[in-house]
Amino acid sequence: MIIDILTIFPEMFEGPFGNSILKRAQENGIVNIALHDIRDYSNNKHKKVDDYPYGGGAGMVMKPEPFFEAFKHIDYNDETEIILLTPQGEPFNQEIANDLVKKKHLVFLCGHYEGIDYRVQEHFVTKEVSLGDFVLTGGELPAMVITDAVVRLIPGSIGKEESFLNDSFQNGLLEHPHYTRPQEIHGYKVPDVLLSGNHQEIEKWRTEKSYEITVNKRPDLIKNIPEDTLKKIKKVCKE
Ligand SMILES: C[S@@+](CC[C@H](N)C(=O)[O-])C[C@H]1O[C@@H](n2cnc3c(N)ncnc32)[C@H](O)[C@@H]1O
User: Which residues form the tRNA methyltransferase TRMD/TRM10-type domain (predicted)?
Assistant: First the structure.
């Protein structure tokens, strides 16, 4: 997968992209991430990328020319998903991450100030995504979060020990609790079933816990549980 990110703060990405799974995925050629500093494409001698809004009012607007210029250096086509990070977009979730991982090429546009001149959106953008119903100062943090959530889904990106298949939301439910050694700490014990070696019973316990946690913490998810997950719940609960 290729990911191009248009930003005025490329250095913000160093920490999240220079560590852990994202670092490894780039080193292993699973993802190729290119950061484009929008200021490099400014035609202003002071590298200014914002200007006053037409119609007046407070706040600045990101100028369109640097974006149009930057796209001349990006090899995109009709299949490329060009994503504008905006609080007005579709709220990001696991389903969107699962869709985006099927794409070969993503481009993220990180806004600042009041946002980017609307004509950039009209001309290039294929999808608007929001991180949630709140306003951040820029699109960099959402671009990092979405990149992380998508790249970890690329086959080979995470090891078997970090498998995402049972993660929360993947099958419509929140995940069951996890335990590791020691078997007891400060009087808190690991549930017996997990020490039993009985894989059928363990699977049953995990499915029940997963369902119970979802009902308690996110009852809104229950009405959208996919058919195959429902079948699995009914099957293990019968046993
Ligand atoms: C201060 S915000 C602009 C908000 C804009 N004036 C509005 O009210 O819709 C600056 C930039 O941060 C990014 N941003 C802020 N909140 C976001 C969110 N919840 N999801 C995704 N991007 C966000 C966008 O790229 C946006 O252009």
Answer: 1-224
